[in-house]
Amino acid sequence: MRYAEALAELEGRRETRMVPDLSRILRLATLLDDPQLAYPTIHVTGTNGKGTAAVVAAGLACAHGISTGLYTSPHLLAVTERFSVCGVDMTPEEFGEEYEHLLPFLLLVDDEADERVTYFEGLTALAYLWLADKPVGLGVFEVGMGGTWDATNLVAGDVAVITPVALDHPELGSTLAQVAGEKAGIIKEGKIAVAREQDDEVLMVIEARCAAMGADLKLEFRDWEVEERLLAAGGQSLRIRGLFGTYDDLFLSLFGEQAARNAGAAVVAYEALVGEPANEARVREALGAVTWPGRMEVLMRRPTVLLDGAHNPAAAEALAMALRESFLWERLHLVISVSANKDLGGIVRELAPLADRVYATRNASERSGDAVRIAERFAADGVAAETYDDVAMALGAAREAADPLDLILVTGSLYTVADARRALGSGVGRALGDT
């Protein structure tokens, strides 16, 4: 099957209604002889930062000589970005071949079930199958949304990683405890959970789930931590106290405290998986090589053009802190488009104090919010705001207005980031969509 044909069949599943139900992906996995159980797995969830933790964990395992598959979601520019083995993405040819193998099973489950197999279920089944066919010695899976009912939750989950939990998707609940219950659903019986520091309400839920499942909880600041963090050119220098050892003089090529602490969680997840200290030289190699487009990604200089997919208040707060810490500028030009279902007020509250001028726009997603509403919210906070038809126009206006020592920040959604990368001709590498 050609890539274009496979992609068209998959895209036709986007209209399938999303319901909290694992019956279809369970049936698919059974028909495929449970490929997701053919390799050990690290399973990563959280509201923000789970992609960072997943990519660092996979990089660490690869640096230690383990053939490691990584499945992230959603993609930004090409669906094949979701699947990789030790930094090498699935090719379009592989996608077509693997999808041709999977398609008869998709159609069979379509006929058996009340609802067709969804877009995300199809992709997740493809990841299960592809990694088993490679084969890999480890799979690192990032949850799409939530945890309990996510299609990735069929993996063995030898180590579950939970990055900070906050309110974001209304479908997951209206309280932190409800959201935490969904996220903690990836913790499996008798396995290990690695958790970042959490709100007390969230931590109670995680601890209760671990107790019920007989899982061993490794908690930030109690069992492990980033002991030291210093600014460095192009990133930051870290010392991480892990479960079995302390790793010093590490360079992480990502910005901000949250990225550092999520990288720390990834190091601990690897230690927990293998049951022994990591090789410090390999940890140093892996962290220094990490790239994660769309996460405080510098694309241009003079003026600096920075892309970040912050799409909720907690992510915007982390972005604002990292900006103050790691960047200098004369004026900040903010190009922003936010999905309609997000907490715009919370995002504006975090970013308005930094912005000198706002270029509000719509991105290419059907979920994009109204540019006029975005501009009005910033104007109410005293920031000059203009509206543009699309991200390319907004970014063009910002670049025209910016001086060499200014900073242009593109944010609000990874759909916005994707549009900016296309506009700048920098659509390479891996990135995520809103999760």
Describe this structure in words.
By secondary structure, the chain is an alpha/beta fold. Helix content is 40%, strand content 18%. It contains 14 helices and 17 strands. The strands form three sheets. The chain has an eight-stranded mixed β-sheet with strand order 4-3-2-5-1-6-7-8, sandwiched between helices. The chain has a six-stranded mixed β-sheet with strand order 12-13-17-14-15-16, with helices on both faces. A three-stranded antiparallel β-sheet has the order 9-10-11. Strand 15, helix 12 and strand 16 (384-387) form a beta-alpha-beta unit. Helix 2 packs across helix 4 (92-112). The longest helix is centred in the N-terminal third of the chain and has 21 residues, at 92-112. It is globular, with a radius of gyration of 21 Å. It starts with a helix and ends in an 11-residue tail after the last helix.
Structural class, please? alpha/beta
Low-confidence stretches: 426-435
Strand content: 15-25%
Using only C-alpha atoms, the radius of gyration works out to 21 Å
Shape field = globular
SS summary, helix count:
14
Q: Kindly report the average pLDDT value.
A: 94
Distance between the termini: 29 Å
Helix percent band: 25-40%
Side-by-side strand order of the widest sheet: 4-3-2-5-1-6-7-8
Number of DSSP strand runs: 17
Biggest sheet, in brief? 8 strands, mixed
Structure characteristics:
single chain, 435 residues, alpha/beta, 8-stranded mixed sheet, 6-stranded mixed sheet, 14 helices, 17 strands, disordered C terminus
